[in-house]
Amino acid sequence: MEELDFDVIVVGGGPAGSSAARMAAENDCTVVLIEKENEIAETVRTSGVTWISDIEKIGIPDEYYNPIKKFSFRSPKNSVKISGDIAKAAVLDVRKTYKFLAQRAQNTGVKIFLGTNVTDVLRDSTGKCIGVIAKSQDNQIQFNGKVIIDASGFASVVAKELGYVKQWKKFGVGAEFEVKTEKLEYDNWWLMVGQEYSPAGYAWIFPTSKNTARIGVGIGKPDSNIDPTIRLNELIEEKRGPIKDLGKIEKIEFHYGLIPNEGLSRKTVYDNLILVGDSAGQANPLVLEGIRYAIRFGEVAGKVVSNAIKNGNTSKAALSPYEKEWKKAIESKINSAVKVQNRWVGLTDEEWDRELDIINELTVDEFLDFIRADFGVSKMVKLATHHPKMIVRQLFNMVKGA
Ligand SMILES: Cc1cc2nc3c(=O)[nH]c(=O)nc-3n(C[C@H](O)[C@H](O)[C@H](O)COP(=O)(O)OP(=O)(O)OC[C@H]3O[C@@H](n4cnc5c(N)ncnc54)[C@H](O)[C@@H]3O)c2cc1C
Predict the structure, then answer these.
(1) Model confidence pLDDT, tens digit, residues 117-166
(2) Distance between CA atoms of 280 and 269, rounded to whole angstroms?
(3) What is the extent of the structural domain holding 183?
(4) 53 in a domain, yes or no?
(5) CATH number at residue 226
(6) Which atom of ligand 1 lies closest to the CA of 277?
């Protein structure tokens, strides 16, 4: 078996893995990024919605996304549209963006192995991980490393193989078609809620260009046993809700994916090992949106790992600044979002119709803070001063889980 040595082994070439690898390489580590698919983002498993302020910080070029200014919600008997003057949300070209992130990592010296599936973990005599074994075509390769970054997404292959984590029990399943449409308000997205769309989740229309969009259905497991692919096909065939306004629809590509939805249930740091992105469960649970966190905390992981390697100590304690930093940034937001999500999952159609009346009270920035789960104290206070008493109480109650 071929044997290769690196300081850092990153498993998974998604946004978390590429960002972690780049940051570790920029900080003088030798880094390998191992991806099982034959190309970065060969299969698309995400809708790619994110926020322009984050994209600009990350440096993703503006030709890689379709900007969104208007945010529409549909429940069985209600409909709201919140419009802004400038675009704040974006629907990414997922393939281009993920390839861009991987290319940027490669430019800093990261060695990328595509079509290479990590199947096993190497341990030392005390059980700590010291490498992985991967299969590439008919070859097996042994990668030895000082630190492993598990960025393998939902699968969490390394942490699972080591017995540190088990398969997620609560997760979202999403099915989506990229489609060509006859008509499209291409700066307006739709979220569709209520039983007919998704019994535990939501359906969506996210425009990707002037005449293309992603239409999808997300379903929470184990809350509902509905198959999102079947529901999606029904919605498109029956042209339910705002789908009928798209005119003739031509399916271009099918996307399918799983995303953890357990709040912050996992430890993300072990001796010689860090979990990042979906592997760590780092997504905003309100709308199961994780790309910006995968990139941001991937960078934090790469930095902390390279510091630990420089200091010659890659123990759990030496890697713990990573967990401290990401938890400080999002722990309270995620906990609040879980409460709102728990409330949303239990709503009847009539309650959804009323919920949209509350959402309709929000300005575009308040709505976006809400959907982004940006529930800082100062933002909540601003909400309190801006809105009539009853509405505010309901908003506070949502966030506090009352
Ligand atoms: C249906 C759906 C819609 C979503 N929509 C949005 C959205 O609109 N906006 C948003 O921000 N987030 C969205 N998300 C969530 C978002 O996709 C994830 O949070 C994000 O992709 C996490 O990035 P990651 O790098 O951690 O994992 P991933 O993107 O899953 O990357 C993991 C990589 O690891 C590789 N891998 C897995 N196992 C192995 C192995 N054994 N060996 C080698 N490589 C391996 C995989 O092939 C993959 O390339 C959605 C998720 C789903 C399921």
Answers:
(1) 999 999 999 999 999 999 998 899 999 999 999 999 999 999 999 999 99
(2) 9
(3) 65-91+169-260
(4) no
(5) 3.30.9.10
(6) 26
